[in-house]
Amino acid sequence: QVDTGGYAFQPGAKDLLHYLDMRGMLRLLLPSDDDDDVARMEAQAASLAESLQVPPFATSLDPAAAARARRGEAEALGEVAEALDLTPGSVMVVSD
User: Fold this and answer.
1) How many Cβ atoms from other residues are within 10 Å of residue 41's Cβ?
2) 31: closest CA among 56, 5, 65?
3) Chain-centre distance of CA 29, in angstroms?
4) Are 65 and 76 in contact (CB under 8 A)?
5) 70, 33 in Cβ contact below 8 A?
6) Distance of alpha carbon 50 from the chain centroid
7) Which of 7, 26, 63, 66 has the fewest C-beta atoms lying within 10 Å of its C-beta?
8) Which among 19, 30, 80, 83 is positioned nearest to 55, based on CA atoms?
9) Which tens digit of pLDDT belongs to each residue from 38-80?
10) Cα dist. 75→52, 53, 80 in Å?
């Protein structure tokens, strides 16, 4: 499956997102490290959700916070939790 931006999804991506949605779990999108255009990131998130036929993402992190989360920095998990209004212990990060 491919979105309007040409991104090819890994098998099972749609199933995983549906699983999370059915259980009321929030999803957050980590933007690309090289993208600092918030409007473009929001458009990409909307395109991904539409292409996968899932509800919109709860929010997206700014590029600097996303880069820290990808590197696995401890404080990044706190930023993810804060963005979703959750405690760090209730956050799970899944990456491609």
Assistant:
1) 20
2) 65
3) 2
4) yes
5) yes
6) 14
7) 7
8) 19
9) 787 788 888 888 888 888 887 767 778 888 888 888 788 888 8
10) 30, 32, 9
